[in-house]
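To the wet lab folks,

You asked to see what we're planning to order before we commit. Fair enough. Below is the target structure as tokens, and below that is the sequence we designed to fit it. If anything looks off to you, flag it before the synthesis order goes out.
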């Protein structure tokens, strides 16, 4: 079996874990957490990074720190992993779903602008209100789909105009750049990274918020560590217990030492698939917008009709042949808990999601295994289509 994406633990993970056990620092205080935060801030291009128990908890606490309240709306693309939307719901708020651009699979600045212009107004208090639902709009949450940065210049320009904070879900985008800038160094208030097991860099589980804003960094850290003031049991806010543990950070540090190697491997895998399918009509690579160098978290192929109609059979055949091929995210607005959330035109989202085939892309994938995958994809398509 050639798996879809498995962690690459060939570095100093075991050594660092042993250090945690020997020192008894296994919990949320310890040298690896601090080191990990430094490494993440460095890679994100920010002054601060605060490590959390997961990407989802980082988003939840991040939205809370940015002032998202019960009953609010948070603008988010429908084409995302469910955690982006669940984190909004955890605040008691709801997503306001918007479409993605067909060229980037990330939040479409054109529909964002149109929605803000045509569907909101300011109330007496000066708050931005979604006119149809009369709910306050309190943040924008762009997603860096597959490690591709969203078009942040245009999004943050609109955010400034409408005075909305921005929290980027850059879960799998560590190592990507936007117009030459590191993914965290853009104008978002917060940028979230995930270190879940299937991400390019893993801590077993974990997340982080990167930011250049000192006050917001402090508030976020405060919120994620029980909002304690002073040394004893004094707490001034409703805090979370969302801090990363030293055990997770030990793995995370060892992984971060290999970030550049991992990103290079991911980019090479993606380029090899692109080359391997270049002559097949109806198979194209995932988007590569001019403005970005993506992190290529996942690789695979985007299928045009009529091949796209055969995707389930293609996947089934590949799986039978021992190749980890999978579909990609089912859009959030089609998921039971979020069906009634306000949504604009989502025609791009609806037209792309069933046409994505993800293929094995572990950073440890060998050239011969990838050649085998390419061969079987080509044969399967020839036989079925
Ligand atoms: C992985 C992922 C998350 C969630 O991160 P966890 O660490 O698993 O909680 C959120 N958003 C996107 C886009 C992701 O890919």
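Sequence we intend to order:
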């Amino acid at each position: 079996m050639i798996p879809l994406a498995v962690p690459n633990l060939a570095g100093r993970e075991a050594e660092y874990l042993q250090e945690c056990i020997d020192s008894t620092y296994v919990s949320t205080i310890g040298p690896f957490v601090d080191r990990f935060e430094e490494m993440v801030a460095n890679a994100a291009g920010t002054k601060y990074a605060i490590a959390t128990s997961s990407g989802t908890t980082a988003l939840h606490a991040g939205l809370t720190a940015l002032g998202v309240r019960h009953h609010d709306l948070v603008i988010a693309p429908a084409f995302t992993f469910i955690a982006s939307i669940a984190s909004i719901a955890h605040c008691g708020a709801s997503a306001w779903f918007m479409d993605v651009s067909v060229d980037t699979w990330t939040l479409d600045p054109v529909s964002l602008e149109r929605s803000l212009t045509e569907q909101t107004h300011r109330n007496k208090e000066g708050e931005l209100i979604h006119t149809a639902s009369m709910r306050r709009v309190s943040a924008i949450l762009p997603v860096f789909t597959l490690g591709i940065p969203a078009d942040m210049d245009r999004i943050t320009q609109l955010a400034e105009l409408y005075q909305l904070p921005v929290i980027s879900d850059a879960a799998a985008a560590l190592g990507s750049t936007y117009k030459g800038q590191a993914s965290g160094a853009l104008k978002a208030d917060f940028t979230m990274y995930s270190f879940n097991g299937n991400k390019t860099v893993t801590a077993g589980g974990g997340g982080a918020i990167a930011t250049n804003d000192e006050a917001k960094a402090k508030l976020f850290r405060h919120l994620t560590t029980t909002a304690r003031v002073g040394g004893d049991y004094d707490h001034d806010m409703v805090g979370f217990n969302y801090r990363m543990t030293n055990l997770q950070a030990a793995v995370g540090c060892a992984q971060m030492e290999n970030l550049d190697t991992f990103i290079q491997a991911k980019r090479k895998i993606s380029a090899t698939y692109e080359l391997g399918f270049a002559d097949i009509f109806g198979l194209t690579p995932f988007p590569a917008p001019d403005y970005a160098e993506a992190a290529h978290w996942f690789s695979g192929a985007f299928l045009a009709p009529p091949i796209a109609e055969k995707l389930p059979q293609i996947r089934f055949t590949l799986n039978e042949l021992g190749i980890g091929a999978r579909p990609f995210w089912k859009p959030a607005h089609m998921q039971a808990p979020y069906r009634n959330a306000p949504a604009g035109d989502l025609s791009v989202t609806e037209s792309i999601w069933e046409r994505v085939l993800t293929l094995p892309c572990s950073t440890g994938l060998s050239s011969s295994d990838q050649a085998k995958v390419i061969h079987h994809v080509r044969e399967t398509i020839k036989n079925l289509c």
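Structural context that might help your review: The CA atoms of residues 226 and 239 lie 4 Å apart. The mean pLDDT is 97.

Thanks,
Computational group
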